[in-house]
């Protein structure tokens, strides 16, 4: 197993490299960069942090945040909950009203399908106080 040497790693990061962009037709050097691994790492890390920061700022400070689930306006969430409750209760009322109208229609047409309750009731006897 190779030993880890901090000095050699640091030297490798600081080694200088040359990046040359050349014209393919004339072999003329267009741009020359002197780079090291450390400078490339720093530049890429800075670009990543800046892009992340810009993305977060774009979402937080613009109306785009409304498209994130659970991040909506508190008042809108409360209103949505109240509307859902009202809708559920209206559905219940409409169902009950429909049943009532069906029953009235059946009574007026003479379609009585009423089952008589023939079970005996067990009525408890009232308690008496004996003195």
UniProtKB/TrEMBL annotation:
Keywords: Membrane, Transmembrane, Transmembrane helix
Transmembrane intervals: 38-61
Name assigned to this protein: Peptidase
UniProt organism field: Paraflavitalea soli
Taxon lineage: Bacteria, Pseudomonadati, Bacteroidota, Chitinophagia, Chitinophagales
């Amino acid at each position: 197993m190779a030993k880890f040497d901090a000095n050699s790693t640091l030297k490798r990061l600081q080694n200088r490299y040359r990046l040359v962009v050349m014209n393919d037709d004339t072999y003329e050097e267009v741009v020359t960069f002197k780079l090291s691994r450390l400078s490339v790492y720093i530049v890429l890390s800075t670009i990543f942090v800046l892009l992340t920061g810009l993305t977060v700022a774009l979402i937080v400070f613009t109306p785009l945040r409304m498209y994130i689930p659970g991040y909506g306006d508190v008042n809108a969430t409360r209103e949505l909950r109240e509307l859902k409750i009202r809708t559920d209760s209206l559905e219940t009322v409409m169902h009950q009203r429909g049943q009532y109208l069906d029953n009235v229609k059946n009574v007026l047409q003479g379609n009585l399908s009423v089952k008589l309750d023939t079970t005996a009731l067990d009525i408890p006897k009232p308690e008496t106080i004996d003195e």
